[in-house]
Amino acid sequence: MDHNCDSFYNSQQRISRFPGLVYAPPLSDTRKKAMLYQVVMTGTPPEKMRWKLDIPNKTSGIIVWFLFPSAKARSILLDGEEVPYNNRISNGVTGQSIPAPVEGKKCGENRYIPVQNILEFYITG
Fold this sequence. Notes:
Order of helices and strands: EEEEEEEEEE
Structural class: mainly beta
């Protein structure tokens, strides 16, 4: 319990946790791409989030697609090190490019689509 209160509001000393259950099957020859999960928040997303996929099979993973309400710089940290975004590829229009899609090749692989404010990343166990 949070026993520190200031009038009506509690002190919010505890970290909010929102566990979820997802299915992360191992990659096979018939399914070349990891499963995609779209995460939707009904309120303001926190400044920092920690994601963990707790599975016994370390070879499987999932792709998480997350929509942010505001345009800010986003980054993925893996073991304290920032993982760079995927390279940009041409979209067919001269001088324009888009972030390459996340293919699930390594944990932390990510892309950020700036105009739509979408962060997409791959996470393994």
